[in-house]
Amino acid sequence: MMQTNIRYPNGTYLPYAAASIVAFALQDSEIRETYALKEVCCMRETPQSIVDRLVSPAVFAFSCYVWNTEFNKAVAALVKKTYPECTVIFGGHNIPENDGAFLSAYPFVDILIFGEGEKPFKGILESLSGRASLKDVNNVAFRENGEIVLTARAQDDDISLYPSPYTMGLLDGILLKYPDTDFSAILETNRGCPYHCAFCDWCEQRSKIRSFPMERIRADILWMAEHKIEFCYCADANFGILKRDDSIIDFVTACKQKYGYPRKFRVNFAKHNNDTVFNITKKLETAGLNKGATISFQSMNPDALKSIGRENMSVSHFSALMERYQAAGIATYTEIILGLPGESYDDFCRGIGRLLAAGQHTTLFIYNCEVIENSQMASPEYMQKNGIRTAQTTLYVRHNAVAEDEIAEHSRSVVSTDKMNVDDWVKANLFSVLIQSCHSMGLLRFFALWLYNEKGVLYEDFYQGLQRYAAQHPDSLIGGVYADFAERFYSIARGNGTWSCIVPEAGNVSWPYEEAFYIRLLLKKEAFYEDAVRFLSSFSIEDDIFSDILSYQKTIVKEPGTISAETGLQYDLVPYFDNLMRCKITGLKKRRNRIYAYDENVPAQTEEFMRVCVWFGRSVQRNLFSGLTAEYGG
Asked: Which of 128, 182, 568, 595 has the highest CB neighbour number within 10 Å of its CB?
């Protein structure tokens, strides 16, 4: 069995999916007598080193998703060349559903599994040992007499008897084999999603929610705690949609308190943020298991939402949620997808502006739309109807450790639609970078806040103005970085670009563009703010207010090795901006004061600073000083 996952500098995920399929099959006594599990491979070694360990394998199965399919192909081809009699099986989300063309394209693959793999894999093993006919196994494709056979499709409505690979001990050996690797673990409490989002491969299955028993869930969480798993990712599509999810979190927090693990617990929250989601978020926050709540929109444009089968909460409800979480001291972050059909460049910018006006000033994540195998969006009919053009790009993996000799994985990025041509798509991506680096991450946030509330300058107009300035001044610091990133986005559209880049001073890590943009400006902070002064001069801000906001803005942005900062002000900016961040408008008072910022945990070394404050700390604003104090008088 093989399931390699994304490799981060300090670790990777345990191969839960592949192990789950094996666990189900090994419940059968005859299968246990007939087959022996060699191992579940989870590391991206060289294909040859993997094959060298094999001894006359009967079956080699691969779990395929966007981050490992090309690697799986390379290994499978070598397995088949070395052991022609070995049956090679491919399954997983990245295998095109109900289509045998994959078998035609890759002759080294013998059998495909569509959808969930537990029962089909067991059936294949039974057929290979003569206990059943492969034609009677649902959800598979194979060759027979030169033709490709597709069997009937069916879904198991009852998953309550599916065993856990954790408690069966199938993953213990991996922990022992790789003691220096920090493994993360996947937790499933249910399967299925009731929504029909066009961009998602889960939703295309249109399956009802099927739950695992609470006994299994508690046992899995306990296993993770006892085995010192630091990070647990709950793979449910809509955690918080079921009332029992609240009690699951109670057990997670109890394990954290007793064992110290897991240290972090992340979920995909239910689409409609409800009381259950709020309570879960509060418990995770209190236990130190997670920081922040997701309030996703995908788009603020009704035409785009209609095209993808989504409905958003109202902006007023979003503002109320923001206020509720802020009152509880819980950070929020919002996710947006760029490049959805039905949305133009101007629509996209206006939508971002509305989110900022509603109070989302801290953590905004903007992802490019990708066409995922087996989603509705991937169908030729959908793409033609919505004018979608894609480009194949190297797989976008945030903060991945970069290896030059690694087999590249690919994804399909949307680079133009019916409402957004390539040039506008590039502009939208650059606007996205500016919004996230200069507003969400704070480089110019406080000027934008003041201008919106005192002069009525819309957020989208402010940052589109910054965009024009950068484009018109390529010899400036911000203009040079902007021009570099513009060419990178055009390279993506041409099919020879990547979605991340290396900043040498920040280590051998693939940084998403908004973070790379931030880092490059921060490393030349004074030059950036000289650029900013020239841009901001067009807004006719009173000299004394301008000077104060500039000092405040520069003081609050951390730098490597700077554990404290202070500045004198003529205006009482600390409470003023604290209130604006919570959408509470108060007048700006002229009151001489001196503000102080302090954080003894600011790393001195640049690479470590970027890891702690930007990579890990971005969502909780670790890159900015918080808790400012002010002394008045003088």
From this structure: 595
Question: Per-residue pLDDT tens for 221-257?
Answer: 999 999 999 999 999 999 999 999 999 999 999 999 9
Q: Cα(623)–Cα(515) distance, rounded to whole angstroms?
A: 11
SS3 183: strand
3-class DSSP assignment, residue 410 = strand
What is the phi/psi pair of residue 315, to 5°?
-65, -35
Measured distance CA(336)–CA(349) in Å, rounded: 11
* 3-class SS of residue 413: strand
- Pull the structure tokens for residue 450: 């003041």
Class of residue 110 by CB neighbours under 10 A (exposed 0-12, middle 13-18, buried 19+): buried
430-480: per-residue pLDDT in tens? 999 999 999 999 999 999 999 999 999 999 999 999 999 999 999 999 999
**Averaged over 55-61, what is the pLDDT?**
96
Look at strands 182-187 and 11-13 and give their pairing: parallel
Give the pLDDT confidence of 564-612 residue by residue, as tens digits: 999 999 999 999 999 999 888 888 999 999 999 999 999 999 999 999 9
C-beta pairs of 118-121 under 8 Å, 24+ apart in sequence: 118/20, 118/21, 118/24, 118/25, 118/156, 118/162, 119/24, 119/156, 120/91, 121/21, 121/22, 121/24, 121/25, 121/61, 121/89, 121/91
The per-residue DSSP string of 434-471 comes to HIIIIIIT-SSHHHHHHHHHHH---HHHHHHHHHHHHH
> How far is residue 64's CA from residue 70's CA, in Å, rounded to a whole number?
9
In the beta sheet, which residues pair with residue 264? 231
The answer to whether 121 touches 91, Cβ cutoff 8 Å, is: yes
Q: What is the pLDDT of residues 264-321, one digit of tens each?
A: 999 988 877 678 888 999 999 999 998 677 777 788 888 888 888 877 667 777 788 8
Place of tokens 């299925």: 192
Other CB atoms within 10 A of residue 133 CB: 11
Question: What radius of gyration, in Å, describes the C-alpha atoms of the chain?
Answer: 26
pLDDT value at residue 404: 63
Report the candidate in 443, 452, 594 with the shortest Cα–Cα distance to residue 531: 443
Coil, strand, or helix at residue 474?
A: coil
**Phi–psi pair at 567, nearest 5 degrees:** -160, 155
Helices (H) and strands (E) in the chain, counts: 24, 21
Calpha distance 133→123 (Å, rounded): 9
Average pLDDT, the chain: 92
DSSP 269-299: B-SS--HHHHHHHHHHHHTTS---EE---B-
Whole-angstrom distance, CA of residue 53 vs CA of residue 319: 57
Residues in a beta bridge with 63:
91
CB 594, CB 634: distance < 8 Å: yes
DSSP string, 48-101: HHHHHT-SS-SEEEEE--TTTHHHHHHHHHHHHHH-TTSEEEEESTTSPTT-TH
**pLDDT at position 302, please?**
85
Number of Cα atoms under 13 Å in the Cβ half of residue 100: 15
